[in-house]
């Protein structure tokens, strides 16, 4: 089997030489284990963000979907599909044994959710960790109410595109920020955002003031940095901010990271609530998000899009492309033809 191993702590944008692809022998299965052939691998921003906290070398983690080839676990028969967090590998042994190296306690593997005929790849996207992030982060932390104005950054990405559409379903006015005119057009024409803005080519403060003349009630923050300061400064009384990610600084040297700009007056006087979250907090509720998202897709209320890269050898390029904003929708890698 093959797997990607991270050799270094990244400096700036991760380099190809920071990864090794290693061939290794798979051990025979023990009781309770399954052998999975990978079909879809996810490339996500947290792969970059969590690098500093890990000691190197380590196996590259990420969500993946595969099909069971051999099974010594009756719950996962041969031919069934499984979602796991064992990352960039073409074959994976999974175990329920909590002491096993094939077990990730934060994200134990689980059966493919009932996708009602949709592509299994969605299990690493809209019906996977990013979908749960959008659904639970927005509904639990922002608690958007009908008629309120919701702003989302990273709006054309895996999480952001779903956040905006759920906010529309909940009857909100939705404004999204994204990094290209094509993304802006997709958000407005296909996803029904009330307004989308290219943050690279516009004056963010002025554009937001025009798009949200009555101010912002909820902000789902995927990017952090200066744009977030501007958005937070235009929030209404008792506004809610879900701090989901800060991709604008993931490639920065953590020791030289800029301090947050001065926001205190608006946070205090407007009595805002800002809350950071990690979606694994609600791991036992992901299935709720999945069921509702699948239903919305089937009902035509939620549009999903994927940016597919083919081939196990191209995972690095897919990952770097996602960090650079090449993806509209969820960036995924198709490993082998099912
Ligand atoms: P996306 O699909 O949104 O892909 C990343 C996108 O980030 C790119 O397409 C690019 O779009 C944008 N981007 C890159 N650099 C910058 C920058 N300097 N400023 C602004 N935008 C930038 O990824 P995900 O949807 O998977 O993740 C979105 C965010 O959510 C990330 O911050 C991630 O870490 C976070 N996250 C948090 C979770 C949690 O539990 N808290 C779980 C999952 C994700 P563009 O062209 O618009 O610049």
UniProtKB/TrEMBL annotation:
| Domain Enoyl reductase (ER) residue range list | 12-333
Q: Does the keyword Disulfide bond apply?
A: no
Q: Write the protein's name.
A: Prostaglandin reductase 1
> Which sequence ranges are marked TM in the entry?
none
Q: Which UniProt keywords apply?
A: Acetylation, Cytoplasm, Fatty acid metabolism, Hydroxylation, Lipid metabolism, NADP, Oxidoreductase, Phosphoprotein, Prostaglandin metabolism
Q: How does it assemble?
A: Monomer or homodimer.
Where does this polypeptide localize?
A: Cytoplasm
Q: Which family does it belong to?
A: Belongs to the NADP-dependent oxidoreductase L4BD family.
């Amino acid at each position: 089997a093959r797997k990607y191993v991270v050799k270094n702590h990244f400096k700036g944008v991760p380099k190809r030489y920071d990864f090794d692809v290693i061939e290794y022998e798979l051990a025979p299965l023990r009781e309770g284990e399954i052998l999975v052939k990978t079909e879809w691998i996810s490339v996500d921003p947290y792969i970059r963000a969590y690098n500093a906290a890990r000691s190197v070398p380590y196996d590259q983690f990420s969500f993946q979907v595969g099909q069971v080839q051999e099974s010594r676990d009756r719950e996962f028969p041969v031919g069934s599909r499984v979602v796991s967090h064992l990352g960039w590998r073409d074959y994976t042994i999974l175990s329920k044994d909590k002491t096993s190296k094939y077990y990730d306690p934060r994200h134990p593997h689980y059966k493919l959710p009932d996708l009602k005929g949709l592509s299994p790849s969605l299990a690493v996207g809209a019906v996977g960790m990013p979908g749960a992030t959008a659904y639970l982060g927005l509904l639990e932390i922002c608690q958007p109410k009908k008629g309120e104005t919701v702003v989302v950054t990273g709006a054309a990405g895996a999480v952001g595109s779903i956040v905006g559409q759920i906010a529309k379903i909940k009857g909100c006015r939705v404004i999204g920020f994204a990094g290209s005119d094509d993304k802006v057009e997709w958000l407005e024409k296909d996803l029904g955002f009330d307004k989308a803005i290219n943050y690279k080519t516009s004056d963010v403060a002025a554009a937001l003031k025009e798009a949200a003349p009555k101010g912002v009630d909820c902000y789902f923050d995927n990017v952090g940095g200066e744009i977030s300061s501007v958005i937070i400064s235009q929030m209404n009384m008792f506004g809610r901010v879900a701090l989901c990610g800060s991709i604008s600084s993931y490639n920065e040297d953590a020791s030289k990271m800029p301090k947050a700009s001065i926001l205190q007056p608006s946070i205090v006087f407007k009595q805002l609530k800002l809350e950071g979250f990690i979606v694994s907090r609600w791991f036992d509720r992901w299935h709720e998000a999945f069921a509702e998202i699948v239903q919305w897709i089937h009902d035509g209320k939620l549009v999903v899009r994927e940016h597919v890269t083919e081939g196990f050898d191209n995972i690095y390029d897919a990952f770097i492309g996602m960090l650079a904003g090449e993806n509209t929708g969820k960036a995924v890698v198709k490993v082998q033809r099912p």
